[in-house]
Design goal:
Elements lengths: L2 H15 L6 H7 L13 H17 L11 E4 L1 H12 L3 E2 L2 E18 L2 E17 L5 E12 L9 E6 L3 H11 L3 H16 L2
Helix pairs in contact: 1-2, 4-6
GO cellular component, one term: cytosol
GO molecular function, one term: protein-folding chaperone binding
Pfam family, one: Aha1_N
Length: 199
């Protein structure tokens, strides 16, 4: 053994004497660089216990690798966007019907934080609507929800506009009718939130 290595080992042994048995210095002084713990085969009981832990983790929604249940994030934006398009299409109130959901832009995430699930989403939703006004006149337009957020589903902001109308009166009536979609849209989004939380 070289002099430098001998001095180093002696210093570690001295430090270990002054510290608790579980200190890093104690462990290092008692371990040789050539020793390595030998692997052992798990018993059937240990394997079953490990499988049970993994099954419980997967039921909670966490990944099998995250045994400690620390922070984990899962992006489910694609599923949420597709599901919202399905749920919102055909929604109607006051003679106005959503004919198409043209875009759902934003994110939806599920977080595992210290073993507990948290859900969050925020979307900007653009839709097309149509209304048959008095006298057989068809009025259509767009409707935007600038911020459909998990925290504010009971107070949506609607931004309607008319793209095709016959006369000013029908246009004004249609814009008033579109605002009646607020309640049904909030109901659809609340249903979506319940589905989302079941993920």
């Amino acid at each position: 053994m070289s002099v430098g290595l001998q001095d180093h080992k002696t210093k570690l042994e001295e430090q270990a004497k002054g510290k608790a048995d579980l200190s890093y210095s104690y462990f290092l002084a008692k371990t040789s660089t050539t020793e390595a713990p030998s692997p052992r085969k798990l018993t059937e009981e240990e394997i079953r216990a490990q499988q049970e832990v993994e099954r419980e983790k997967s039921q909670l929604g966490g990944s099998l690798w995250n045994h400690a249940g620390t922070f984990e994030e899962r992006n489910v934006s694609k599923w949420a966007q597709d599901r919202l398009k399905d749920l919102l299409a055909g929604c109607s109130a006051g003679g106005v019907t959503i004919t198409e959901v043209s875009s759902v832009i934003g994110d939806a995430n599920i977080w595992m934080v210290r073993g507990k699930k948290r859900h969050g989403f925020s979307f900007e939703i653009s839709m097309s609507w149509k209304m048959e006004a008095a006298g057989g006149i068809s009025v259509s337009g767009t409707l935007k929800i600038p911020n459909a957020d998990v925290e504010d589903l009971d107070d949506l902001t609607l931004e309607p506009s008319v793209t095709k109308s016959g006369r000013d009166k029908e246009e004004a009536d249609a814009l008033t009718a579109v605002k009646k979609l607020k309640g049904p849209l909030e109901k659809v989004l609340s249903g979506f939130l319940r589905e989302f939380k079941a993920q």
